Amino acid sequence: MVLRRKAVPAWLNAIDEASGATHPFALNRILKNSLYYPASGFDGDPVKYFAGNIHSFVYADCGRSEEELLQALANPGFLGYEPITTRLVTAQELNWPELPGYLNETPIDGNLELFIGLGWVKQPFCSWTVFQRCDDRPPSHGPARFSFLFLCADGTAAYQALYVANSVAPKAIAIIQPGWTYFSDPEHALARTVATNPAGKPELLIYGGDGSSDRYVAPCWPEYNENFCFLDTHTGGAIGVWRLNADDRSDRAQIG
Q1: For 199-252, how does the pLDDT look when each residue is reduced to its tens digit (9 = 90+)?
Q2: Helical H runs in the chain?
Q3: Summary count for the chain: helices (H), strands (E)
Q4: Cα distance between residue 199 and residue 186, in whole Å
Q5: Which region holds residue 119: left if phi is over 0, alpha if psi is between -120 and 50, else beta?
Q6: Cα 6 from Cα 191, distance rounded (Å)
Q7: Which residues pair with 238 in a beta bridge?
Q8: What is the pLDDT of residues 174-191, one digit of tens each?
């Protein structure tokens, strides 16, 4: 973990294995102070480095199927953690009329329709899992538990429908090796959607990918101008942790 550890939120502690499958889906609690990761694949690095300060992780990737997710959660999963409950989330619980791969009214990557035609964009779904630290792991290994929400959806559309529509800003957003998307482009629809969210911008930007930290000496979005550190990825790459500039942080605090 690279940030100060915080106590596990009460709502997350209240979920147990017996009630998890029917536990009310607390969308706003899951979104508040979360880490949002579009074009995420099944990359565990943000959980590895930020779990403990952040207790809720929201991943979005329209190229991963439900079967692939279940396989990834089973093996390799998250080292030292086991799921205490996992279930599918309905569109109604997300306050969406349906679970689209992307929203027609949201600007999307020009490449996306091509990949839909190639069959690389999977059937939309949403899955929620609560992970608990294994009994044989000490507290120093990481937090007692964390929430993990995975959506098969376009990253821009998911941000619009989750955060903007519910007047919430995540604590952090991760732009890591975003593949064929243009999520790192400050003029792209994702960056514009994040910037115009009335709830404010994420406090932290996690940016990087393949190659050494020399490739990421500047953040992809210029309003993040304070570098905390660089971290190694499990693939041998690097990610930088950047903080929102002071003026924007002030605006975010006023919004609440």
Answers
A1: 999 999 999 999 888 888 899 999 999 888 999 999 889 999 999 987 776 555
A2: 10-13, 17-20, 27-31, 45-50, 66-74, 112-117, 155-159, 189-195, 246-255
A3: 9, 9
A4: 19
A5: left
A6: 28
A7: 209, 232
A8: 999 987 788 999 999 899
> How buried is residue 202: exposed, middle or buried, by Cβ count under 10 Å (0-12/13-18/19+)?
buried
The total number of residues written for the chain in this structure? 256
Single out the residue of 196, 209, 215 nearest to residue 43, CA to CA.
Answer: 209
Tokens (6 digits) for 149: 């929400």
Distance (Å, whole) CA 78 – CA 192: 32
Q: Can you give the pLDDT at residue 118?
A: 44
Whether 242 and 227 have beta carbons less than 8 Å apart is answered as yes
Q: Which of 230, 188, 178, 225 is nearest to 204 (CA)?
A: 225
pLDDT above 80 for 64 = yes
